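Put briefly, the fold is written as integer tokens. The lines below illustrate.
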Amino acid sequence: MRFTHAVLGATASCLVLMSSSVMSQSTAPAKTPAPAASASKASADLSAGDKRFLDNTAQSGYSEVEGSKIALEKTKSPKIRAYAQRMIKDHGAMQKDLEALAKRKGYELPTEPSLAQRAQLKALGALNGTEFEKMYSSHIAIAGHDNTVLAFQNATTQTEDPDVQAFAKKHIGMLRDHLDGARQIGPTDHGM
């Protein structure tokens, strides 16, 4: 039992550090598609900060959806299940908007979570029961949305491209709702 708590504590500490750095990490330079000259020019017009925001948003969306799919497989909590279903639906729709924006800008988005997020998802998938629910609610739901809301809040005023800024403004309310919902299923509400 002590060993399980030690492993869970170490995993949780690692995941907190990873999730807090996810939205601020810089990603490898993204590839721009070559077929159309106008698309390449549009991508070149995006600032490095705008590209980083788009990349982090795509990766966080993939991570949220994958983590929520794991939650649907592992939890019996009706509140966590309902929350996970909403995350899959809402983040899936936001991802489609993001992909449309990137296409208009001629910018190629990442197609999976970041390396740190993939490690977090792997650790999450190894847990079960209450330990899983605590990790999902505190790291995927709360910490993930806390970081995402902050990134979107900054993007509403700090991104250079007006379309990127409009995307952030369009979705920040939904993300704040997700954060509020995450706090409702927080670590003290398991199994309900």
Summary: Helices lie at 2-22, 37-45, 48-74, 78-105, 115-125, 129-158, 162-184. The radius of gyration is 17 Å. Residues 1-40, 188-192 have pLDDT under 50 and may be disordered. Residues 47-184 form a domain with the Ferritin fold (CATH 1.20.1260.10).
